[in-house]
Design brief:
The protein is α+β, with helices and mostly antiparallel strands and 201 residues long. It has 2 domains: 3-74, Winged helix-like DNA-binding domain superfamily/Winged helix DNA-binding domain (Arc Repressor Mutant, subunit A); 88-190, Orthogonal Bundle (Arc Repressor Mutant, subunit A). The chain contains 9 helices and 5 strands. It has helices spanning 3-13, 20-23, 32-48, 71-74, 88-100, 105-112, 117-125, 148-154, 170-173, and strands at residues 53-58, 61-66, 103-104, 129-134, 142-146. The strands form 2 sheets. Strands 3-5-4 form a 3-stranded antiparallel β-sheet. Strands 1-2 form a two-stranded antiparallel sheet. α1 packs across α3 and α5 crosses α7. The longest helix has 17 residues, at 32-48. It starts with a helix and ends in a 28-residue tail after the last helix.
């Protein structure tokens, strides 16, 4: 078997991005350099033949994906999986976590102005955020950060692909420590108020 054939077979069968060193485990004849050359060769071949799919760099790995311009055709079929959509509050909370991580629930609620426990749980259930540690101080509150699934969901190679901070609302751009009175948890009854940061309602 040629390296390109092995690499293509592995990517075709995988439902998650794979790093070059992970793909190399498929056969003793492969190493990271051989896999990377095979990936480059396949990418060039797909582009030259104008294939409907490509090898995309996602979540610090490689994945075989349908090209975006073919999405309208796929939407006509119920058998084609569709990514689940996030609500405005979920997108808003996810944006805050992505840019300010590691970040605690109280700080998220201070930025949003509403209780966020339910939204954070939803994002955890969808494996978009996870607990990454504990903060210092009273009670050692949980700190949240984004996951590899977050990168996959939005097609980012890494967090460096996020829009530049100068393009963001000030509330996401500037990180200031909360004072004691600001750190008071938000009343859950205020959840419906919302705060538009440009990512949700």
């Amino acid at each position: 078997m040629k390296p390109e054939q092995i690499v293509e077979a592995v990517l075709f069968a995988s439902d998650a991005p794979l790093r070059a060193e992970e793909i190399a485990r498929a056969d003793e004849s492969l190493d990271e350099d051989i896999v990377e050359r095979a990936l480059q060769g396949l990418q060039a071949l797909y582009q030259e033949d104008e294939r409907a799919f490509e090898i995309a760099e996602v979540a610090e790995g490689f994945q075989l994906l349908t090209r975006p311009e073919f999405a309208p055709y796929l939407e006509r079929f119920d058998t084609v999986p569709r990514p689940s959509r996030l609500s405005g509050p979920a997108l808003e909370t996810l944006a805050i976590i992505a840019y300010r991580q590691p970040i605690g629930r109280v700080e998220i609620e201070y930025i949003r102005g509403v209780s966020s426990s339910g939204v954070i749980r939803t994002l955890q259930d969808r494996a978009l955020v996870e607990v990454v540690g504990r903060a210092e101080g009273l009670g050692r509150p949980l700190l949240y950060g984004t996951t590899t699934r977050f990168l996959e969901h939005f097609g980012f190679r890494s967090l460096e692909d996020l829009p530049r901070t100068e393009e963001l609302p000030v509330v996401l751009r500037d990180r200031r420590a909360l004072t004691e009175d600001q750190a008071t948890p938000v009343d859950p009854d205020q959840e419906e108020l919302g705060l538009n940061l440009g990512t949700g309602s």
